[in-house]
Design brief:
The chain is mainly α. The protein has a domain of 51 residues. The chain has four helices and no strands. The protein is elongated, with a radius of gyration of 26 Å. The model has no long low-confidence stretch (mean pLDDT 82).
């Protein structure tokens, strides 16, 4: 035997909610109506682009563990790995290298 699900919108409206009325009175701007906002970026990242990938969670934990052990950052380790990959394939090493504090 199936029972019909109650209409929650009708129940809320019958209870005297003004939420829908307020939402209808103030329509949210559509992307065409909204002014374009410039993306806020730190000056140090103005000429950079994010490079990302998905891996198992264990990879992220091990990478963080290695960064702690070497007293460096995950970003510096990834830069080192990318430069090694570029070198292996005969490409110029493009990631800037700086010595990590304590290394």
């Amino acid at each position: 035997m199936s029972t019909k699900k109650p209409n929650l919108a009708a129940i809320v409206e019958a209870a005297g909610s003004t939420r829908r009325a307020a939402a209808a009175a103030e329509p949210s701007p559509t992307p065409a109506d909204a002014p374009a906002k410039p993306v806020a970026r730190a000056k140090s990242r103005a000429t950079t682009r994010q490079v990302a990938a998905h891996f198992p969670a264990e990879v992220a934990w091990q990478l963080r563990e290695l960064a702690v052990e070497r007293r460096t950052t995950v970003q510096k380790l990834l830069g080192e790995a990318l430069n090694d990959l570029f070198q292996k394939h005969g490409k110029p090493e493009l990631v800037p290298t700086t010595r990590a504090r304590g290394s």
